[in-house]
């Protein structure tokens, strides 16, 4: 199968667009189509209403392109020719496809990804098909105009919640997102953090071992951190282990809110 030479362009960084739409005229409602998407129309675009946002696609393709929702996996809006030939998919909070951008909100962010489909050049529909595919840029431009949409960026909203670790000295706070991954070995003199076979860091409340973070009610808070060999784990796992190590800073941030904790100088 030949992959299109005229690969439609989601232009570098997804911040330049092929089409700049004129202002839309007043909309008129039309009935829901068989896909489950409610569609509105204007002089320029067909508006497909999803549970995340409105997708605006050129009305010139309205008689030739259909859009359907697939919720069998990640929420996906599938754009295809009327005969079912797929053009592209927009995937919301999924893991596959090219990053389109992120819809940012006060409470949650939604990452949108994109999957395109090829057509053989000898197909008599090829040029039209490419034009339809390129017009994903119209969707991008309108998302940028209508919403807080960061084109080409994946912005993951951090979970601020923590869980409590009751030590012999005080209660520590560590990110809840790691609660099912981290192992914590507690003793009167230490709290040792690991993930599976990999040591992350140790906190000591007695002795001289490790770097001094501060003191709590006169007792030292020291830390020992461990090197992780990136060649011994997958890239994804290495990133997770590093993030878990870095989040010792969350423990420290909460300790600093306690007037009994005095941070070490230097």
Give a brief outline of the structure:
This protein is an alpha+beta fold and 266 residues long.
Summarize the main sheet: 6 strands, antiparallel
Structural classification:
alpha+beta
| Quaternary | single chain
Helix content: 10-25%
Supply the number of helical segments. Answer: 4
Strand order of the largest sheet: 5-6-7-9-8-10
How would you describe what is shown here?
The protein is of the alpha+beta class and 266 residues long. The protein folds into two domains: 140 residues, no CATH class; 102 residues, no CATH class. Helix content is 15%, strand content 36%. It contains four helices and 18 strands. A six-stranded antiparallel β-sheet has the order 5-6-7-9-8-10, with helices on one face. The chain has a six-stranded antiparallel β-sheet with strand order 13-14-15-17-16-18, with helices on one face. A four-stranded antiparallel β-sheet has the order 1-2-3-4. Strand 3 and strand 4 form a beta hairpin. The longest helix has 12 residues. The protein is elongated and about 80 Å long. It starts with 27 loop residues before the first strand and ends with a strand. The N terminus is likely disordered.
